[in-house]
Amino acid sequence: MALRSDELHYNLQHLNGMLTTHEAAKQLDLSYWHFMHLVEAGRIPGVRVVDRWLFSPADLDEYKRRRYGELVDLARTALSHPDVDLTEKQATICRYLANSERPSAIARKLQQSRQAVYSQITLIREKVARILDQRADPNADPEQAAPRRRSRRRQRSKGPIPLPTPASEAEASAHSSSAETPESGLTP
User: Are 128 and 78 in contact (CB under 8 A)?
Assistant: First the structure.
């Protein structure tokens, strides 16, 4: 939103407490260029005054909630339910997520790859979903759900289907021709 000079005096009290581009990017822990890309795409609202952008801390917090709110809620749910049975690494990741840390920042702090952190988040999401499904349907037997998962794994791990060898093809054709003879009524 660009302000004209006659609107500037009226909106000056609105501009008090606003953050500059570099301050806002630092608050969101984004690079300046990535932050500006988001601003120009309209994902982060700001006010343009002459040739400067200014950003409301409330708008930045709203962006954070939209972007990472699901992960924060997931982490808080996982930490509040002892039935989730988190590993130590998963509990650490959840504590960071509950404090609104980004997954890439968590990866740097834990000296892990981002892929490793995201795979742990996926496992946490599955554990929380399983617990919430059990609470939603108290009649569901958790013992019955586990064997089904195991049987699917067994089916996937069977390996390749053996191809017939020339000797087994000859046996199969001999069995099929002998099976046809009695039915047709012809004698060999």
Answer: yes
Q: What's the whole-model pTM score?
A: 0.50
3-state SS track over 82-130: HHHCCCHHHHHHHHHHHCCCCHHHHHHHHCCCHHHHHHHHHHHHHHHHH
pLDDT tens per residue, range 6-36: 565 555 555 678 899 999 998 888 889 999 9
Q: In whole angstroms, what is the distance from residue 71 CA to residue 126 CA?
A: 13
Residue carrying the six token digits 């990535």: 34
Q: How many CA atoms lie within 13 A of 62 on its CB side?
A: 9
Helices (H) and strands (E) in the chain, counts: 9, 2
Bridge partners of 55, per DSSP, are 19
What whole-number distance in Å separates Cα of residue 57 and Cα of residue 24?
Answer: 8
Under 8 Å between Cβ of 78 and 98: no
Q: What is the DSSP letter of 50?
A: T
Which tokens is 52 given?
A: 């400067």
Cα separation, 79 vs 40, in Å, equals: 37
Both tokens of 77, joined, read: 């749910």
